[in-house]
């Protein structure tokens, strides 16, 4: 399996700069990343369910940002590596880990490069809210497939591409309510489940199931759902 994107090639510099600018406020539960904090508990529950528990397992968080998911998976007993291409986010993740006492291993490295170093190393690979921010999502998916061990678990989350998702994820979240900073998403980069399914199969993964993530802006909470029309997860397995 080949990964054509070299170090830094599969990166949108504007996206990296945008998220890097938010680094100092990543862990502010009332700041610009508040929604990410609110959706993290159901994300963790879903990963734990798909993996059949996390205790003692080696987990990779691709596009870890400031370490929100990485620390939560560590708290569940996993040995976690978090990777991201924004140096400011990796620095914030490391600093917060020192404060929390939960210390995942953070690296500023492209997933394709890590795949060349650690093929088959991880029991669980997570790639959350990242695929819609890179030029070549299929390359990321292929790298994730290489990094997981045979029989291991891979979980992606992204945003569906349809009129409802446009209205809720961009018009509603970015322009009407301000839940997400304007310009965070580009509709053309949203990914239909059929597209994600095809890329996963091409990478040698076996898609297992889909779940939606429903966010309530009034209660400021999120839960897993059968509705995959906007935010959704795909659970995959690498055949043994």
From TrEMBL:
UniProt pathway annotation: Cofactor biosynthesis; ubiquinone biosynthesis
SUPFAM superfamilies with a match to the protein in the record: S-adenosyl-L-methionine-dependent methyltransferases (SSF53335)
Entries under Pfam families matching the protein: Methyltransf_23
Example of a GO biological process term: methylation
Protein function: O-methyltransferase that catalyzes the 2 O-methylation steps in the ubiquinone biosynthetic pathway.
Family: Belongs to the methyltransferase superfamily. UbiG/COQ3 family.
Name by which UniProt lists this protein: Ubiquinone biosynthesis O-methyltransferase
């Amino acid at each position: 399996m080949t990964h054509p994107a070299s170090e830094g090639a599969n990166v949108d510099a504007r996206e990296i700069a945008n998220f890097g600018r938010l680094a100092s406020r990543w862990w502010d539960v009332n700041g610009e990343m508040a929604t990410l904090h609110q959706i993290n508990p159901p994300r963790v529950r879903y990963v734990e369910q798909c993996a059949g528990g996390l205790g003692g397992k080696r987990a990779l968080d691709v596009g870890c940002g400031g370490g929100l998911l990485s620390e939560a998976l560590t708290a569940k007993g996993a040995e976690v590596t978090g990777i991201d291409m924004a140096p400011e986010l990796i620095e914030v993740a490391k600093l917060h880990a020192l404060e929390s006492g939960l210390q995942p291993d953070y690296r500023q490295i492209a997933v394709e490069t890590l795949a060349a170093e650690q093929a088959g190393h991880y029991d669980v690979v997570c790639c959350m809210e990242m695929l819609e921010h890179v030029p070549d999502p299929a390359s990321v998916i292929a790298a994730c497939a290489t990094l997981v061990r045979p029989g291991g678990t891979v979980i992606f989350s992204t945003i569906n591409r349809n009129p409802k998702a446009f209205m809720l994820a961009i018009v509603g979240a970015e322009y009407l309510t301000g839940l997400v900073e304007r310009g965070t998403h580009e509709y053309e980069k949203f990914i239909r489940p059929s597209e994600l399914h095809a890329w996963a199969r091409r990478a040698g993964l076996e898609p297992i199931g889909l779940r939606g993530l429903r966010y309530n802006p009034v209660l400021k909470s999120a839960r897993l759902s059968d509705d995959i029309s906007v935010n959704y997860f795909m659970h995959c397995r690498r055949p043994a």
